[in-house]
């Protein structure tokens, strides 16, 4: 089982998009049984009295345009124990990377990666919260998810 946790600031746009895009890709490839995929936030801004907000409507709508549902997903916060549970903690941008390291007490390396580094880029996944462009974010996330699966295959961590 390959356990993957996608992480962004609030867990209402980029990381849930990554969670459900990767779930969709592995389901279509017939390898979903090899994965546990989730997402989390580095902040508590989208969590009130222990209950997380749902995926932000424009993010949900962008996923729906591609036939992907994120129904029932609510924001949750990253915990230090997530480092022990997941094989890969994948941050969406440089600030997330710093927060992941701080919150887990671990450095980038065996388990902590920045999403687009799998695609050979040191770029951040574009944040639609500021740009309003959820299509661009979707494209970044698809690129990152496909490159991650290619990386797993090349490194013989994934059986097809």
UniProtKB/TrEMBL annotation:
Keyword Ligase set for record: no
Entry GO MF terms: protein tyrosine phosphatase activity
Top-level enzyme category: hydrolase
Keyword Iron-sulfur: no
Signal peptide boundaries: none
Pfam families, per database record: LMWPc
Catalytic activity: O-phospho-L-tyrosyl-[protein] + H2O = L-tyrosyl-[protein] + phosphate
Gene3D superfamilies: 3.40.50.2300
Residues annotated as catalytic: 8 (nucleophile), 14, 127 (proton donor)
Phosphotyrosine protein phosphatase I domain ranges (all copies): 2-151
EC annotation from Swiss-Prot or TrEMBL: 3.1.3.48
Keywords: Hydrolase, Protein phosphatase
CDD domains: LMWPTP (cd16343)
Cited PANTHER family: LOW MOLECULAR WEIGHT PHOSPHOTYROSINE PROTEIN PHOSPHATASE (PTHR11717:SF7), LOW MOLECULAR WEIGHT PROTEIN TYROSINE PHOSPHATASE (PTHR11717)
Family: Belongs to the low molecular weight phosphotyrosine protein phosphatase family.
Protein name per Swiss-Prot or TrEMBL: protein-tyrosine-phosphatase
């Amino acid at each position: 089982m390959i356990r993957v946790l996608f992480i962004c600031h609030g867990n209402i746009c980029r990381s849930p998009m990554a969670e459900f895009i990767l779930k969709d890709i592995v389901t279509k490839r017939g390898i979903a049984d090899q994965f546990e995929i989730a997402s989390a936030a580095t902040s508590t801004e989208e969590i009130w009295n222990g209950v997380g907000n749902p995926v932000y409507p424009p993010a949900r709508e962008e996923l729906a345009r591609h036939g992907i549902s994120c129904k029932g997903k609510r924001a949750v916060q990253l915990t230090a124990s997530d480092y022990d549970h997941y094989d890969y903690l994948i941050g969406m941008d440089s600030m997330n990377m710093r927060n992941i390291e701080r919150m887990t007490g671990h450095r980038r390396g065996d388990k902590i990666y920045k999403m687009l580094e799998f695609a050979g880029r040191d770029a951040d996944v574009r944040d639609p919260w500021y740009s309003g462009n959820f299509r661009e974010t979707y494209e970044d996330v698809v690129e990152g998810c496909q490159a991650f699966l290619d990386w797993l295959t090349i490194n013989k961590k994934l059986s097809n």
